[in-house]
């Protein structure tokens, strides 16, 4: 069966669901405004997460740093709980926590520590919280996205909210706002048509175990793939040069803009006799993860079809 026939069968239902999730974000006016106002009114911001997905917090840090003058940093939840929050009295930053559905244990610990140390919180959740967490967070801001497409939805939310933090008339934020607000079935089909030969090759490449790595803007794509596909191993770019001795097959996810930074990874095919497959999304690193995430959902459906 050819990819086009499989697309009409397996992926058509998923496509409609993804589009529904994407359009839902654009219509979350109150939630987008709450997130925007929290960022606008914050002098300093810390982005963190609970659960296995760090990419929404990382992407928020990158986007804010790239488009605004806000002082923002990304921290692992353990770093924030044990090394920053207890000791930053009178230097407190506002904290945004991205909490996926399987991150409630860590979220409980984060909330206890951050409220005890008097930090202002915005918690963005995948699903509804437990009654205990709702009680603890009754004086804080909570946005429940109620989504199954956690990485895609949070990336869209971040992009749209940060674009609003930056005033209109700034070309890059205007483009972000426009692209994220106008995803359509036709656009996605065109996207898949352009990348279909690459996806066909990638599908074959991933039949065998592989390390998966990505540039900072594309980390969510790497997470989405490895957490949903067996025999794939999430590895950061700096570690890949050690890990390739254990498994010499590497899937690299990047963009044109970041290509120079990953030349040593691509060169592993020569320097270490590794098999390297590259997915290169040819657009702005801030919009690229959205398109790559859609392609990843398409690929996963083809593999599982």
Describe it for me?
The chain is built from 14 helices and 9 strands. It has 305 residues and is of the alpha/beta class. The chain has 2 domains: 19-181, Glucose-6-phosphate isomerase like protein, domain 1 (Rossmann fold), CATH 3.40.50; 184-304, Glucose-6-phosphate isomerase like protein, domain 1 (Rossmann fold, 3-Layer(aba) Sandwich), CATH 3.40.50.10490. The strands form 2 sheets. Strands 2-1-3-4-5 form a 5-stranded parallel β-sheet, sandwiched between helices. A 4-stranded parallel β-sheet has the order 7-6-8-9. β6 (210-214), α10 and β7 form a beta-alpha-beta unit. The longest helix is centred in the N-terminal third of the chain and has 24 residues, at 3-26. The radius of gyration is 20 Å and the shape is globular.
SSE map:
Blueprint: H1 3-26, H2 29-40, E1 44-50, H3 55-67, E2 71-74, H4 77-84, E3 94-99, H5 104-116, E4 121-125, H6 131-136, E5 141-144, H7 150-165, H8 171-181, H9 185-205, E6 210-214, H10 219-226, E7 232-234, H11 240-243, E8 249-255, H12 263-266, H13 268-271, E9 275-281, H14 288-304
Parallel strand pairs: 1-2, 1-3, 3-4, 4-5, 6-7, 6-8, 8-9
Helix pairs in contact: 1-7, 1-9, 1-14, 2-7, 3-7, 7-8, 7-14, 9-14, 10-14
Q: What is the number of independent domains?
A: 2
Tell me the series of helices and strands, N- to C-terminal: HHEHEHEHEHEHHHEHEHEHHEH
Strand content: 15-25%
CATH homologous superfamily name of the largest domain?
Answer: Glucose-6-phosphate isomerase like protein, domain 1
The helix/strand class is alpha/beta
Outline the biggest β-sheet: 5 strands, parallel
Helix share of residues?
40-55%
- How do the strands of the widest beta sheet line up side by side? 2-1-3-4-5
Separate helix tally: 14
Principal-axes geometry comes out as globular
Mean pLDDT: 91
Q: How many strands in all?
A: 9
Low-confidence residue ranges: none
CATH class of the largest domain: Alpha Beta
CA-atom Rg in angstroms: 20 Å
CATH topology of the largest domain: Rossmann fold
